Amino acid sequence: MPTLSRAAVRASTVFSAALLSVAALAAQGVVRDVPSNSPGSGTCSTAPFGNGTAATANQRLQFVVTRNELGSTAGWITGLSFAPCAGGLSQAEFFEIGLGLLPSGFGFTGHLDFDDNLWNQCTVWYPLLSSEFNARWSRSANAWSTIGADASVWYDGTSDLLVDIKAIGNRASGGNSGVHHDGRPALHVAGWTGPMPATGTVVNTAPKVRVQFGVADKAAFNVGCHGLALALAGNAVPGQTIHFDVTGGGANLPVVLNLGITSPDIELGVIYIPGCWFLSDLAITSIVSTTDASGARRFSLTLPTSNSLNGARVIAQGVHANPALPQFVATSNGYRFVIGPAQP
Q: Which residues constitute the domain of residue 314?
Protein backbone atom coordinates (compact mmCIF):
# COMPACT_ATOMS: atom_id res chain seq x y z
CA MET A 1 0.00 0.00 0.00
CA PRO A 2 1.37 3.49 -0.78
CA THR A 3 2.48 5.85 1.96
CA LEU A 4 1.60 9.49 2.32
CA SER A 5 3.97 12.11 0.97
CA ARG A 6 4.39 15.69 2.24
CA ALA A 7 1.00 15.50 3.97
CA ALA A 8 2.34 12.70 6.15
CA VAL A 9 5.41 14.74 7.06
CA ARG A 10 3.25 17.66 8.17
CA ALA A 11 0.93 15.33 10.06
CA SER A 12 3.88 13.64 11.77
CA THR A 13 5.10 17.03 13.00
CA VAL A 14 1.68 17.83 14.46
CA PHE A 15 1.51 14.34 15.95
CA SER A 16 4.93 14.74 17.61
CA ALA A 17 4.11 18.13 19.09
CA ALA A 18 0.75 16.95 20.39
CA LEU A 19 2.28 13.89 22.02
CA LEU A 20 4.66 16.06 24.01
CA SER A 21 1.62 17.61 25.66
CA VAL A 22 -0.02 14.32 26.69
CA ALA A 23 2.95 12.22 27.84
CA ALA A 24 2.47 10.30 31.06
CA LEU A 25 4.44 11.27 34.16
CA ALA A 26 7.68 9.42 34.88
CA ALA A 27 6.76 6.02 33.46
CA GLN A 28 9.88 3.93 34.00
CA GLY A 29 9.83 1.62 31.00
CA VAL A 30 10.00 -1.71 32.86
CA VAL A 31 7.85 -4.85 33.25
CA ARG A 32 7.16 -7.03 36.28
CA ASP A 33 6.42 -10.66 35.40
CA VAL A 34 4.43 -12.50 38.06
CA PRO A 35 5.59 -14.94 39.22
CA SER A 36 8.30 -15.04 36.51
CA ASN A 37 8.92 -14.53 32.80
CA SER A 38 7.57 -17.99 31.92
CA PRO A 39 4.34 -17.47 29.95
CA GLY A 40 4.51 -20.93 28.37
CA SER A 41 4.47 -22.98 31.56
CA GLY A 42 1.89 -23.79 34.23
CA THR A 43 -1.63 -25.20 34.32
CA CYS A 44 -4.36 -23.81 32.05
CA SER A 45 -7.55 -22.28 33.47
CA THR A 46 -10.61 -20.84 31.75
CA ALA A 47 -10.86 -18.13 34.43
CA PRO A 48 -11.64 -15.39 33.55
CA PHE A 49 -11.73 -15.53 29.73
CA GLY A 50 -13.82 -18.67 29.19
CA ASN A 51 -13.76 -21.47 26.63
CA GLY A 52 -16.88 -20.71 24.61
CA THR A 53 -19.29 -22.61 26.87
CA ALA A 54 -22.25 -21.20 28.80
CA ALA A 55 -20.62 -22.21 32.08
CA THR A 56 -17.71 -19.83 31.44
CA ALA A 57 -19.55 -17.08 29.53
CA ASN A 58 -19.90 -14.78 32.56
CA GLN A 59 -16.99 -14.51 34.99
CA ARG A 60 -15.53 -12.33 37.70
CA LEU A 61 -12.06 -12.83 39.14
CA GLN A 62 -9.94 -11.03 41.72
CA PHE A 63 -6.31 -11.76 42.53
CA VAL A 64 -3.43 -10.02 44.30
CA VAL A 65 0.02 -9.02 43.08
CA THR A 66 2.30 -8.28 46.04
CA ARG A 67 4.51 -5.26 46.44
CA ASN A 68 7.58 -7.53 46.34
CA GLU A 69 6.44 -8.93 43.00
CA LEU A 70 6.13 -5.34 41.77
CA GLY A 71 9.64 -4.50 42.91
CA SER A 72 8.42 -2.21 45.71
CA THR A 73 8.88 0.64 43.23
CA ALA A 74 6.35 3.39 42.54
CA GLY A 75 5.31 4.15 38.98
CA TRP A 76 2.56 4.38 36.38
CA ILE A 77 1.00 1.04 35.41
CA THR A 78 0.20 1.38 31.70
CA GLY A 79 -1.05 -2.12 30.86
CA LEU A 80 -1.36 -5.81 31.70
CA SER A 81 -0.55 -8.94 29.72
CA PHE A 82 -1.62 -12.53 30.34
CA ALA A 83 -0.23 -15.90 29.17
CA PRO A 84 -2.70 -17.75 26.89
CA CYS A 85 -2.59 -21.52 26.48
CA ALA A 86 -3.74 -21.28 22.83
CA GLY A 87 -3.69 -18.68 20.10
CA GLY A 88 -6.80 -17.10 18.64
CA LEU A 89 -9.29 -14.35 19.36
CA SER A 90 -11.23 -13.94 22.59
CA GLN A 91 -14.30 -11.72 22.61
CA ALA A 92 -16.75 -10.53 25.23
CA GLU A 93 -19.90 -8.46 25.19
CA PHE A 94 -18.41 -6.43 28.04
CA PHE A 95 -14.98 -6.55 29.65
CA GLU A 96 -13.57 -4.49 32.51
CA ILE A 97 -10.38 -4.48 34.59
CA GLY A 98 -9.95 -2.39 37.72
CA LEU A 99 -6.97 -2.06 40.05
CA GLY A 100 -6.86 -1.27 43.76
CA LEU A 101 -4.15 -0.66 46.35
CA LEU A 102 -4.35 -2.98 49.36
CA PRO A 103 -2.48 -3.09 52.67
CA SER A 104 0.44 -5.48 52.29
CA GLY A 105 -0.42 -9.04 53.30
CA PHE A 106 -4.12 -9.04 52.29
CA GLY A 107 -5.68 -12.49 51.77
CA PHE A 108 -9.09 -13.70 50.60
CA THR A 109 -9.84 -15.71 53.74
CA GLY A 110 -12.87 -13.95 55.24
CA HIS A 111 -12.99 -11.58 52.25
CA LEU A 112 -15.34 -13.23 49.75
CA ASP A 113 -17.37 -10.14 48.77
CA PHE A 114 -15.97 -8.65 45.55
CA ASP A 115 -17.21 -5.10 46.03
CA ASP A 116 -16.29 -5.03 49.71
CA ASN A 117 -12.73 -5.88 48.73
CA LEU A 118 -12.74 -2.97 46.30
CA TRP A 119 -14.47 -0.27 48.27
CA ASN A 120 -13.64 -1.14 51.87
CA GLN A 121 -10.40 -3.13 51.82
CA CYS A 122 -8.56 -1.06 49.20
CA THR A 123 -7.11 2.27 50.28
CA VAL A 124 -7.30 3.53 46.68
CA TRP A 125 -9.46 2.10 43.88
CA TYR A 126 -9.08 2.72 40.15
CA PRO A 127 -12.18 1.17 38.54
CA LEU A 128 -11.41 1.57 34.85
CA LEU A 129 -7.95 0.45 33.80
CA SER A 130 -9.82 -1.07 30.86
CA SER A 131 -13.55 -1.02 30.14
CA GLU A 132 -15.21 -1.70 26.81
CA PHE A 133 -18.12 -3.22 24.96
CA ASN A 134 -17.46 -5.63 22.07
CA ALA A 135 -14.12 -6.41 23.70
CA ARG A 136 -11.50 -8.34 21.75
CA TRP A 137 -8.26 -9.94 22.91
CA SER A 138 -5.77 -11.33 20.39
CA ARG A 139 -4.03 -14.30 21.97
CA SER A 140 -0.59 -15.71 21.16
CA ALA A 141 -0.05 -19.17 22.59
CA ASN A 142 2.50 -19.39 25.42
CA ALA A 143 3.50 -15.74 25.06
CA TRP A 144 2.59 -12.57 26.90
CA SER A 145 -0.52 -11.16 25.20
CA THR A 146 -1.54 -7.65 26.11
CA ILE A 147 -4.93 -6.41 27.27
CA GLY A 148 -5.13 -2.83 26.02
CA ALA A 149 -5.71 -0.27 28.77
CA ASP A 150 -7.80 2.91 28.66
CA ALA A 151 -5.82 4.74 31.30
CA SER A 152 -2.66 4.61 33.41
CA VAL A 153 -2.84 3.84 37.14
CA TRP A 154 -0.43 5.14 39.79
CA TYR A 155 1.17 2.46 41.95
CA ASP A 156 2.66 3.73 45.23
CA GLY A 157 5.43 1.15 45.68
CA THR A 158 4.32 0.07 49.17
CA SER A 159 0.88 -1.53 48.70
CA ASP A 160 -0.20 -4.86 47.27
CA LEU A 161 -2.21 -4.62 44.04
CA LEU A 162 -5.74 -6.02 43.70
CA VAL A 163 -6.74 -6.92 40.12
CA ASP A 164 -10.51 -7.15 39.50
CA ILE A 165 -11.73 -8.57 36.16
CA LYS A 166 -15.32 -8.73 34.89
CA ALA A 167 -15.92 -10.62 31.63
CA ILE A 168 -19.53 -10.81 30.43
CA GLY A 169 -20.57 -12.84 27.39
CA ASN A 170 -17.22 -14.53 26.78
CA ARG A 171 -16.76 -16.27 23.47
CA ALA A 172 -13.64 -17.57 21.77
CA SER A 173 -12.29 -18.60 18.39
CA GLY A 174 -9.12 -20.48 17.52
CA GLY A 175 -9.07 -22.68 20.61
CA ASN A 176 -9.51 -22.44 24.33
CA SER A 177 -9.23 -18.98 25.91
CA GLY A 178 -7.51 -20.48 28.95
CA VAL A 179 -4.51 -18.77 30.51
CA HIS A 180 -1.56 -20.22 32.39
CA HIS A 181 -1.50 -20.08 36.18
CA ASP A 182 0.80 -21.40 38.89
CA GLY A 183 -1.64 -22.19 41.72
CA ARG A 184 -1.83 -18.81 43.43
CA PRO A 185 -5.15 -17.92 45.14
CA ALA A 186 -7.95 -15.92 43.54
CA LEU A 187 -11.59 -15.07 44.23
CA HIS A 188 -13.83 -16.36 41.44
CA VAL A 189 -17.42 -16.79 40.28
CA ALA A 190 -18.71 -17.95 36.88
CA GLY A 191 -21.71 -19.12 34.89
CA TRP A 192 -24.45 -17.00 36.42
CA THR A 193 -27.58 -15.66 34.77
CA GLY A 194 -29.31 -12.49 35.94
CA PRO A 195 -27.51 -10.10 38.34
CA MET A 196 -23.82 -10.61 38.99
CA PRO A 197 -23.23 -12.50 42.27
CA ALA A 198 -21.83 -10.43 45.15
CA THR A 199 -19.51 -13.14 46.44
CA GLY A 200 -17.16 -15.77 45.07
CA THR A 201 -15.15 -18.82 46.02
CA VAL A 202 -11.43 -18.97 46.67
CA VAL A 203 -9.69 -20.97 43.93
CA ASN A 204 -6.01 -21.51 43.15
CA THR A 205 -6.10 -20.22 39.58
CA ALA A 206 -4.79 -16.63 39.71
CA PRO A 207 -3.37 -16.09 36.20
CA LYS A 208 0.22 -15.33 35.43
CA VAL A 209 0.46 -11.64 34.62
CA ARG A 210 2.91 -9.11 33.22
CA VAL A 211 2.48 -5.66 34.77
CA GLN A 212 3.72 -2.98 32.37
CA PHE A 213 5.22 0.33 33.47
CA GLY A 214 5.57 2.61 30.43
CA VAL A 215 6.76 0.05 27.86
CA ALA A 216 5.74 -0.09 24.20
CA ASP A 217 2.38 -1.78 23.79
CA LYS A 218 -0.43 -2.07 21.24
CA ALA A 219 -3.84 -3.72 21.14
CA ALA A 220 -6.86 -3.62 18.85
CA PHE A 221 -10.28 -3.07 20.41
CA ASN A 222 -13.95 -3.03 19.48
CA VAL A 223 -15.05 -3.71 15.88
CA GLY A 224 -15.33 -1.92 12.57
CA CYS A 225 -18.48 -1.58 10.47
CA HIS A 226 -19.15 -2.14 6.75
CA GLY A 227 -15.88 -4.07 6.47
CA LEU A 228 -13.53 -1.24 7.44
CA ALA A 229 -10.52 -2.42 9.49
CA LEU A 230 -7.45 -0.83 11.07
CA ALA A 231 -4.14 -2.64 11.68
CA LEU A 232 -1.00 -1.26 13.29
CA ALA A 233 2.45 -2.39 12.12
CA GLY A 234 5.67 -1.66 13.97
CA ASN A 235 6.40 -0.97 17.63
CA ALA A 236 5.63 2.28 19.44
CA VAL A 237 9.26 2.82 20.44
CA PRO A 238 10.63 6.40 20.45
CA GLY A 239 12.31 7.21 17.14
CA GLN A 240 10.69 4.35 15.22
CA THR A 241 8.06 4.54 12.47
CA ILE A 242 4.65 2.99 12.96
CA HIS A 243 2.18 2.25 10.18
CA PHE A 244 -1.61 2.46 10.39
CA ASP A 245 -3.21 0.35 7.65
CA VAL A 246 -6.87 1.06 6.86
CA THR A 247 -8.46 -1.58 4.62
CA GLY A 248 -11.90 -2.59 3.39
CA GLY A 249 -13.02 0.75 1.95
CA GLY A 250 -14.21 1.84 -1.45
CA ALA A 251 -11.75 2.85 -4.17
CA ASN A 252 -10.39 6.41 -4.37
CA LEU A 253 -12.58 7.86 -1.63
CA PRO A 254 -11.88 9.98 1.47
CA VAL A 255 -10.40 8.30 4.54
CA VAL A 256 -9.34 9.84 7.84
CA LEU A 257 -7.03 8.57 10.58
CA ASN A 258 -8.12 9.99 13.93
CA LEU A 259 -5.64 10.04 16.82
CA GLY A 260 -6.73 10.86 20.36
CA ILE A 261 -5.92 10.16 24.00
CA THR A 262 -9.19 8.56 25.16
CA SER A 263 -11.94 6.44 23.64
CA PRO A 264 -15.55 7.69 23.92
CA ASP A 265 -16.67 4.13 22.98
CA ILE A 266 -20.03 5.39 21.64
CA GLU A 267 -22.22 3.29 19.37
CA LEU A 268 -23.43 5.58 16.55
CA GLY A 269 -26.96 4.23 16.35
CA VAL A 270 -27.89 7.37 18.30
CA ILE A 271 -27.21 9.34 15.09
CA TYR A 272 -28.68 6.64 12.79
CA ILE A 273 -25.40 4.88 11.95
CA PRO A 274 -26.06 1.54 13.67
CA GLY A 275 -23.21 -0.91 14.16
CA CYS A 276 -20.52 1.76 13.86
CA TRP A 277 -18.54 3.14 16.80
CA PHE A 278 -16.85 6.44 17.75
CA LEU A 279 -13.60 5.24 19.34
CA SER A 280 -11.08 8.13 19.31
CA ASP A 281 -11.61 11.57 20.83
CA LEU A 282 -9.49 13.28 18.08
CA ALA A 283 -7.52 15.18 20.77
CA ILE A 284 -4.17 14.79 18.98
CA THR A 285 -4.88 15.14 15.25
CA SER A 286 -6.89 13.94 12.25
CA ILE A 287 -5.05 13.05 9.04
CA VAL A 288 -7.09 13.19 5.83
CA SER A 289 -6.21 11.18 2.73
CA THR A 290 -7.76 9.05 -0.03
CA THR A 291 -7.99 5.30 -0.43
CA ASP A 292 -6.18 3.61 -3.30
CA ALA A 293 -7.78 1.45 -6.00
CA SER A 294 -8.09 -1.45 -3.56
CA GLY A 295 -9.87 0.68 -0.94
CA ALA A 296 -6.85 0.84 1.40
CA ARG A 297 -4.52 3.48 2.78
CA ARG A 298 -1.34 3.32 4.85
CA PHE A 299 -0.58 6.21 7.18
CA SER A 300 3.08 6.20 8.32
CA LEU A 301 4.26 8.32 11.25
CA THR A 302 7.63 8.55 12.96
CA LEU A 303 7.56 8.87 16.73
CA PRO A 304 9.65 11.53 18.48
CA THR A 305 12.92 10.30 19.95
CA SER A 306 12.32 11.78 23.40
CA ASN A 307 12.17 9.25 26.26
CA SER A 308 9.93 11.71 28.10
CA LEU A 309 7.09 10.21 26.04
CA ASN A 310 7.40 6.85 27.78
CA GLY A 311 3.91 5.92 28.93
CA ALA A 312 2.04 8.27 26.58
CA ARG A 313 -1.13 6.55 25.33
CA VAL A 314 -2.72 7.12 21.91
CA ILE A 315 -6.07 5.89 20.52
CA ALA A 316 -6.36 5.46 16.73
CA GLN A 317 -9.35 4.86 14.46
CA GLY A 318 -10.05 5.04 10.74
CA VAL A 319 -13.16 6.73 9.30
CA HIS A 320 -14.19 6.40 5.66
CA ALA A 321 -16.72 8.28 3.52
CA ASN A 322 -18.40 6.10 0.90
CA PRO A 323 -21.61 7.11 -0.94
CA ALA A 324 -22.34 3.44 -1.69
CA LEU A 325 -23.01 2.75 2.02
CA PRO A 326 -26.47 3.20 3.56
CA GLN A 327 -25.29 5.98 5.89
CA PHE A 328 -22.36 7.06 3.65
CA VAL A 329 -19.76 6.35 6.36
CA ALA A 330 -17.80 3.45 7.82
CA THR A 331 -15.67 3.32 10.96
CA SER A 332 -12.87 0.88 11.75
CA ASN A 333 -12.00 -0.92 14.95
CA GLY A 334 -9.83 1.06 17.34
CA TYR A 335 -6.19 0.62 18.27
CA ARG A 336 -4.60 1.58 21.57
CA PHE A 337 -0.85 1.99 21.77
CA VAL A 338 1.56 3.09 24.47
CA ILE A 339 4.93 4.65 23.64
CA GLY A 340 8.01 3.36 25.42
CA PRO A 341 11.01 1.03 25.21
CA ALA A 342 10.47 -2.39 23.67
CA GLN A 343 9.29 -5.15 26.00
CA PRO A 344 11.76 -7.96 26.77
A: 6-25+216-338
